[in-house]
Each structure stands twice: as C-alpha cells, then as structure tokens.
C-alpha cells in the first residue's frame, strides 16, 4: 500500500493522494466505515472525500459507510438545521446512486438531556471542572450507535476529521497513538474500533481551498452555508466527541447555545452580530444561567451522595429555570425543550419534592400541553 495520507506539494496532488489512499483503505477489508460528521469544515471535507470515493468506485463500493452526527438538542439552532439538511441531501443522493451509505443523527435519551439533568435533577450548569454534559449528551449517544454497528459487523473503522494543524493538544494526542501498517490506530475506549484520520496533514488553507473549489459536492447541497456560518462565527467547530480527551466546544467553536464552560460564546455572538439577531434571547439566557448558578441560595446544602457542600439546584431554583426557559422559547418562536423532557422533569420532581404537577402547570401557562408518561423516569 502506498504511503497513506502523505503531504503533497500542491492542492491537486493532495486531493488525488488522499482519495487514492482512501480507496485502498476502503477496498482493503470488509469492515464498515463510520464517518463522524459534525457539520464543521473538517468533517465536511472527510464526508466529501469519502462520498467522492464511493461514487468513483461504482460497483466496487460494496461495504457500508455510516455517517453519524450528534444532536445534543441544545446545539445552536442554525447549525443543527444545517446539519439535518446536509444529511437529508446526502441520504437522498446516495439512495439515488445505490451507494451503501446510511446517515444517522444520534441524540441523548430523555434522562440524559441537558434540561433533564439541569432542571429535572438539579445539576448545576457545566463548568471546566464539572463537564458532565460531554459524557451524557455526546459520548453516550455516539457510543450506542457505534457499538450497535460493531455488534453487527464485528469491527469498524472510524473516520475522523482530526488534523495535526488543529491545536497543540490534539496534535500531541494524534502523534502519541501507535498506528499499524495501514495507518490505523485502535480506539483507546471503543472495543474493535480503529481510527483513520484521512486529512491529518491538511492545513486550514488546504481545507478551505477544497471546500471553495469543489462546490457543490456530488450530493448537490452546496458548501456555501457552512462557509457563511464560519464567517459569522469567526472560525472553529465542535468535533464529534468520542472521549473526554477531546476538547469540548467553546470560544470560536460551534457548540451548544447553553454552554456555560466558556466566559464568552464567540460563535453565538458572531451569529447575532452578522444577521441572526433573533438568537440574542438564547445568548441572554445562557449569560443569566451562568450568573444564576453562582448564587449560593439556589443550591442545596448537601450533594446527592450525602456529603456536605453545594448540591443540586433547590426545587424553587429548578422551577425558576424552567419558567425562564419557557419564556425564552416564546420569544424566539422555536421549541427549546421537548414534551418528553418536561414529562420526565415532572416525574423527577414528583419523586423528590413536588405533589402539585408544577412543571406541567408551568408549561400550560406558556401554551404547552404535556401528556404524562412519555419521558420515562430512570
């Protein structure tokens, strides 16, 4: 096999070399591929290259390729809508061409969602030291999907958009992994899963040059919107997180509009300042939530394990957050919390402190009718 994913002196050579290496890797064995797609520039490039390879292989494209994207249900609305549109376009075109490609959007189970944890169980908003959201909202849903595919096929290869040029931390992580003779490295947490990083040596400029010059892709949904979103957000993206060593979103990265890990959500501010002013109530809610968690009276005096110290939000605080969220929902005109989540929240409250169906009644004040029994309490 040729030197895999080597650097080239010009863009055309780099694209050709990467595609050749991808074709050789695809045909080398029968293990299905899983493309981790976040909607950012790097995962878009990987998806584009893989799709081109399948089209060019034609009848030789036999083994399945799964495209997995994670929707935490608190992603920036414009980002999650874009990702859904891309996946729909990719799936339709793949079916038209009879390509063995399956797109899947994975989501946390109701008890795992941000609102179920925050408002239902009273978890404080995530901090740099208590980042519970990454595990429950990103890693678990992705792992379930990958484990299901692995159980069916025995072993899988994950294609990630990781690049050595991205950051010092991620570069060191990539370089520390021991690769086998086909440039694969075993995933350190997922059994029978191997990782392939086809654009590891690409620079930012090379990524952008490809997306500009190879537009639209074969599935016909142009890259214009993602280019525009990056202009608004001033760079960066939220990766499909597979482990806690992958940095969480923040700063200029696309991420959850509720993220309280960072001081300033630069991407949200960028969206608001460049045409998406309707999202300002979301940014205001995030800022309010960040300040709200620091007030000592909103936290219980004991943690859930019984130890002394700031514990979950008090019942009154949880009710205040839900009411504020429903108010913001009315202002922006889109659904921010699902019926099942509210039902689950009520189930938790009823088991802990509330005998008056307060969450259901609060929702009714804002025109929401919640049917009981959908958000199972675990």
UniProtKB/TrEMBL annotation:
Family matches, as PANTHER family: PHOSPHOADENOSINE PHOSPHOSULFATE REDUCTASE (PTHR43196:SF2), SULFATE ADENYLYLTRANSFERASE SUBUNIT 2 (PTHR43196)
A molecular function GO annotation: catalytic activity
Protein name: Phosphoadenosine phosphosulfate reductase
Any one Pfam family match given in the protein's UniProt record, by short name: PAPS_reduct
InterPro entries linked: PAPS_reduct_dom, Rossmann-like_a/b/a_fold, Sulfate_adenylyltrnsfr_sub2, SulphurTrfase_DndC
Domain (Phosphoadenosine phosphosulphate reductase) ranges: 34-219
Coiled-coil annotated residue ranges, if any: none
Species this chain originates from: Thioalkalivibrio sulfidiphilus (strain HL-EbGR7)
